Amino acid sequence: MSYLEYTVKFVPTGSRKLLYLNWPLALLLTATAGIGFLMLYSIAGGSYTPWAEPQIKRFAIGFAIMLTIAMVPIWFWRSIAGVAYATSLILLIAVEFFGFVGMGAQRWIDLGFMRLQPSELMKVTLILMLAAYYDWLNPTLKSRLFWVIIPLLLIAFPVALVLRQPDLGTSILLLAAGGGLMFLAGVHWAYFAAVVASGFGLVTCVFKSRGTSWQLLEDYQYRRIDTFLNPASDPLGAGYHITQSKIALGSGGWTGRGFMQGTQSRLNFLPEKHTDFIFTTLAEEFGFIGAFSLLTLYTLIVLFCVVSALANKDRFSSLLTLGIALNFFLFFAVNMSMVMGLAPVVGVPLPLVSYGGSAMLVLMLAFGLIQSAHVHRPR
Fold this sequence. Notes:
With about 375 residues, this protein is mostly helical. The protein is about 65% helix and about 5% strand.
């Protein structure tokens, strides 16, 4: 969409923009985050510290960031897509040299007031860059080999850097989100068939390389795969996480044990109960009904994003909204699959619910871009 077309059609201006915000989406985000605050309060034994209070403050800051970004015209975000992507890439490179090491991985940059995880920022800027690329590209060229290689390189660079940290979970999310956006942009299905075939070959190479000098994964990542295939093989070691997670999920039943009555989390049987495995705490205390309610909120968030994207005739805005919605879906789908034993444990937090600063702020930034696309949709 040209700048002239953008200005000729009616677009809300000034304080009237607040009336055109996607308020149902904002309400759903707040409700989902509220569940997270409740669970963090419960996990801490009925205390706002050390997790609930900081998380509430982060959400408040994130909500303000979302509203601020929503007020800025969407064409501005398209114009700085390249700069945003390059900045995220530079930060990922900086992690290699100045990164803070935590839990055996070098993923954070210490800014003093917070620890920034550049890989979280890349999840958004990669979508922003790819959406701008396909908005610029002539639609008739999108399936030509040369023009397919460019977005593949845009995806491959950050994936390779994140794998070096090492962070397999985020790498998978970046790869899936980038590939998904290419599919949504209309790239021919034959390329994806080739990727699937290559994926089977890669999986074979991963297993064949184990124990060799050219081993493709770290030892702990192989142990996670072993645990996924057979958790009972090491119930007190590598399989401890998933075993305790399944016990918590099963003990909740239909209605749960009750708020703050979960034994797995209160007695510290459940590891990472405030981050990656917070969904199991929810399922134990509120049962199937509570878990299904959270899943319903997530589904509604994705649906509202899809409806907003389909109503937007601007190609960049539509692709950006769909890309972020896809990223959000992958976020909670991978986490829930992981804690239920349907996927290997890869360290992906539950969006808006798990404790974490970078993930919360970057996620609200992403929804700010969706709101900007929604508000500034020509009417």
